[in-house]
Specification:
single chain; 99 residues; Trna Endonuclease, Chain: A, domain 1; 4-stranded mixed β-sheet
Length: 99
């Protein structure tokens, strides 16, 4: 999925947060870096710390409703088959400026 600049900025911030917690982070991992059950899933980030693996998706509210629920359901179902893997969904939106 193509990310907009807001999603990209939040993804980079998320990667930094995981690295600060001691995780090894891969942004937009290629299918070869994923278990076969996830090979057809496009993940924004994977973070590995020992046996724990977090697969993360960053979306704006608009992209969540446009493209969103079907591929997230597919990713979630695939992750259920993998012990020690979890999905983190991060929703980001522009900050509203007060008048």
């Amino acid at each position: 999925m193509n990310q907009n600049s807001l999603e990209r900025r939040r993804l980079l911030k998320l990667a930094k947060e995981y690295r600060q917690q001691g995780y090894e982070v891969t942004i937009n991992p290629s299918p070869e870096k994923l278990p076969s059950v996830l090979a057809d899933c496009s993940l924004d980030l994977i973070a590995v710390n020992g046996k724990k693996v977090v697969a993360a998706e960053v979306r704006t509210k608009e992209n969540l409703t446009l493209n969103g629920s079907e591929d997230l359901r597919r990713i979630s179902k695939s992750l259920e088959k993998l012990p020690n893997w979890e999905l983190e969904l991060v929703i980001t939106n522009e900050r509203r400026k007060s008048c």
